[in-house]
Amino acid sequence: MTNSPPLPFPWRSLAVWLAALIAAMMVFNAWQAFADPAAFATRFGLTGAADADPGFVRVYAARALFLGVVTAVLLGLRQFRALGWFAGVAVVMPVADALLVSTAGGSGSIVIRHVIIGVYLVVTAALLLRLAGQQERGA
Predict the structure, then answer these.
(1) Which terminus of the chain faces fewer neighbouring Cβ atoms within 10 Å, N or C?
(2) C-alpha separations of 22 from 83, 105, 138 in Å
C-alpha cells in the first residue's frame, strides 16, 4: 500500500457547495428559531406553534444547529461518502415537515418549499456520493 498525497480539496465541485449551503442554512435556521420562535414557526408553516410553547421551536433550533455543525465537520474532514449518506437519510426530515405542515393546514407554497428541500437533499446526496467515488479512485 502506497501513501499517496491527499487530493486537493474539491472547491470546484457543485456537491461541496451544495453541502456547504446546507450547513449554513441549518445554522441560520437555528439562529432564527432561537432568536424569534414565533416568527420562525410561521415561516416554517406552523402558525401559532411557538405561541403555544416556544420551547418546541427551540428544540428544533438545537437539532438544526447540531445538523449544521455535523454537516460542516464532515465536509471539512472530506468525508464525502458519509456526508452523501447523511444528506440522503436527511430527506426524511423535509418530507415529514411537508406532511406536518400540510396536516396542520399550512399554505401550499410552504409545503412545496419543504418538498423542494427534499429534492435538493436527494440531488446533493447523489453528487456527494459521486464525488466520493471519484476521490476514492484518485480522479
Answers:
(1) N
(2) 11, 27, 26
